[in-house]
Design goal:
Radius of gyration: 30 Å
Number of strands: 33
Strand order of the largest sheet: 21-20-19-18-26-16-27-28-17-29
Helix content: 10-25%
Distance between the termini: 63 Å
Shape: elongated
Number of helices: 11
Strand content: 25-35%
Largest sheet: 10 strands, mixed
């Protein structure tokens, strides 16, 4: 009998730990081991451990100040369970959730699961000093256990917060303010007053893997660092992109892998530098064969494996069809559908290149079989007028190149005949792509989707719809930016209308830096600094060629209005989204993609996800630029502006050999505008960065 009594007493003594172990088997982990304050911080003198519980306050005298004890680790989505009891008079206590400590103070600010005698089971926000939700005093008395242990359950998912007190639901609240971060520490508190005590025990937590967000990547074309009003543009306003920045996070050191389009797009989709691969390493002609081989792990194929429906709308420019190029009059493959996309509505290359038709999945849209398409980049085909032969037919004159087949009053690169019924109208292109993007979102609203929305704006020819004419102060180029901003606004409005905004990660960026005159007389005011204070333009290894806008929004997960100064690149989307969706990448996939998810979400991390970066203009031979920290080296021959005088027609350095331009070294922390070459002052740093490049090149990968 005595032996049985001893066993029973031992089981009672172990009950809290047994309970914690049981919770842990359900995915819960103990926040308190019943013995020490390990993992907790705050005013430890105001709390004590007694009988396997944390006790705040005292019955020996009043509590002079509000006192807090909080976890060292912040939490996002979680389920928290604990037991509590109160002793004394006028006890006011609670548990802080998604909170932060006030600097230079013992105070905490954030949400509070209130367990005081005034607000049993209520949600209070100390930021706004406001009771947000909870039962009335009459309802509270129905289920509270006075002078006994009570069970509390807290569930935080996104902006949705729910409480249960002794099994009774007391709070079901959705935070309407997207600027309030939905991540923070958990704290125990006892308010001044009393004498009183608050006891907490059996504290366990289960971190919840957020439901896979929808992902929308908007890749604009030729948008520079200074083209957005949230980045300081004065002559053009971008209210929808500004809203995206207010609601999300701006990355101030984000880079396209190349300062031209095709190599950037290939690197973005594959997580592999395009200079490692001859095909697709430079700007592709409009009739190129596919430059990414089917079977390659790509961003869409990875997400498709994670259960996403994947779609691309807009500019492709990565080649189509087998060796020799596509059959424009038949089934066009391989293409996006063979690389992981479930749906595709694209233009083959760019607006200034033939063929000037849209392709939906594997067929040219609206093609009349009796008027087949023929395309050549070697010689004229057919009898269509050209810009060179018939300049009087042009409504948009070219400044250099772009003098081949005229379509819709615009000269193009390359020659085309046939397909009259399928040819696009440039003025309607943005509307067409936007409607297809919106339609894709609407069709996938019940399940996770990935949309790669590769706009044509603001690439040449810039022919915005007439309703946008004059909406900026910098000519047609500015009006095209307005048109882009409207398209972004339509996507955001669709997410709002379908109540998908909180469930969707939106990323906006550009394929390279900005350029003013890129072949047509359409730019208007040259005083607009398209790349802000950065030196260089599209096609340059200076920062203006590849440092680009990058904005990410995910309400409740990404802090609104925040900034990040860490180095990131488009290459990183593949590894980052793999981490976000719980996918393991094969060791030979995405060899240059780094997981920058902590930076994306603003989570604590010891070191940057990416510490070095290589950019090129195009091709495989360089010259290249190499970044390590804030040091940057442009190899010999590469320090060119790309275009003189904000992009007017003469190429800088034309007629000079590459060897005539020496290596260019700069510390961007001191000289973001790259005004001074310090290579002769730091020869060892030049050698160090060159050796780093050779190491990365020879290893065939930069990802560990």
């Amino acid at each position: 009998m005595n032996r049985m009594l001893i066993i029973c007493c031992a089981l009672v003594a172990l009950a809290p730990n047994v309970r914690a172990a049981e919770e842990d088997r359900g995915g819960f982990a103990p926040l308190f081991d019943g013995k020490s304050f390990s993992g907790w911080e705050g005013n430890l003198k105001a709390f004590r451990i007694e009988d396997g519980a944390i006790v705040g306050g005292s019955l020996a005298g009043p509590v002079p100040h509000n006192e807090y004890l909080c976890t060292s680790k912040p939490y996002g989505d979680f389920e928290l369970r604990f037991r509590f009891k109160l002793a004394g008079e006028n006890v006011n206590a609670g548990v802080q959730i998604r909170s932060e400590r006030v600097p230079n103070s013992s105070e905490m600010i954030g949400y509070q699961a209130d367990i005081g005698q005034k607000y049993w089971g209520c949600l209070y926000d100390e930021r706004r000093h406001k009771l947000l939700a909870g039962p009335s005093p009459e309802e509270q008395r129905k289920f509270i256990r006075s002078n006994d242990w009570n069970d509390y359950r807290v569930l935080c998912e996104g902006r949705h917060v729910r409480f249960w007190l002794n099994g009774h639901p007391t709070v079901d609240y959705v935070e309407p303010d997207t600027s309030i971060p939905q991540v923070g520490v958990i704290g125990l508190q006892i308010h001044k007053g009393g004498p009183s005590e608050a006891w907490y025990r059996d504290i366990v937590i289960k971190e919840l893997t957020p439901a896979k967000p929808n992902i929308v990547v908007i890749l604009a074309d030729d948008i520079g660092y200074g083209d957005l009003s949230c980045h300081g543009a004065k002559m053009v306003q971008t209210p929808n992109l500004d809203r995206l920045a207010r609601d999300g996070r701006r990355f101030m050191d984000a880079h396209s892998p190349a300062s031209t389009c095709t190599p950037t797009r290939r690197a973005l989709l594959t997580g592999k530098y395009s200079w490692r691969q001859p095909e697709g390493s430079a700007i592709a002609p409009g009739d190129a064969a596919i430059t990414i081989q089917p079977g390659t792990v790509t961003l869409p194929s990875m997400l498709k494996g994670a259960g996403y429906t994947t779609g691309i709308v807009g500019k492709w420019h990565l080649g189509l069809g087998p060796d020799g190029g596509p059959d424009w009059n038949g089934e066009i493959k391989p293409g996006p559908l063979e690389l992981g996309f479930d749906y595709s509505f694209i233009m083959a290359a760019t607006g200034d290149r033939v063929p000037t038709v849209f392709i939906e999945n594997r067929r040219v849209v609206g093609l009349d079989p009796s008027d087949p398409i023929k395309v050549s980049y070697k010689e004229k085909v057919g009898s269509d007028p050209t810009g060179k032969e018939n300049p009087e037919l042009l409504k948009l004159r070219h400044t250099h190149g772009h003098d081949n087949t005229i379509v819709n009053g615009v000269g193009r690169i390359g020659w085309m005949t046939g397909g009259k019924s399928a040819r696009w109208k440039d003025e309607d292109m943005a509307d067409t792509f936007t409607k297809k993007a919106v339609s894709f979102i609407e069709g996938q609203k019940e399940k996770p989707f990935f949309l790669y929305f590769a706009t044509h704006n603001i690439h040449v020819p810039r022919v915005p719809h007439p309703r946008h004419h004059g909406k900026s102060q910098c000519g047609t180029r500015g009006d095209a930016i307005v048109e882009l901003d409207v398209a972004v606004g339509e996507v955001l409005a669709t997410l709002d209308r379908l109540k998908l905004a909180d469930k969707t990660l939106v990323v906006f960026t550009s394929d390279n830096g900005g350029v003013m005159d890129d072949g047509y007389e359409d730019v208007g005011n040259f005083e607009h600094p398209c790349n802000g204070a950065l030196r260089g333009y599209k096609g340059s290894l200076f920062e203006g060629g590849h440092r680009v806008p990058f904005i990410a929004r995910w309400p409740g997960k990404i802090e609104a209005g925040s900034r990040c100064a860490e180095l990131i690149a488009h290459l990183d989307l593949l590894a980052t989204f793999a981490a976000l969706t719980g996918q393991a990448l094969p060791s030979d996939a995405a060899p240059d993609s780094f997981n920058v998810l902590p930076a994306l979400l603003g989570q604590p991390h010891d070191k940057p996800g990416r510490e070095n970066f290589v950019a090129h203009v195009g091709g495989t031979k360089g010259p290249f630029t190499i970044r390590q920290g804030q040091w940057k080296l442009i190899q010999a021959g590469g320090a060119r502006e790309s275009y003189k005088d904000a992009g007017k027609t003469a190429r800088a350095g034309k007629g000079k050999g590459k060897a005539a331009i020496p290596p260019f070294l700069v510390n961007l922390a001191d000289d973001l505008g790259e005004k001074k070459n310090v290579a002769t002052e730091h020869p060892d740093k030049v050698k160090e960065l060159q050796a780093l490049f050779e190491k990365l090149r020879d290893a065939g990968r930069s990802r560990p």
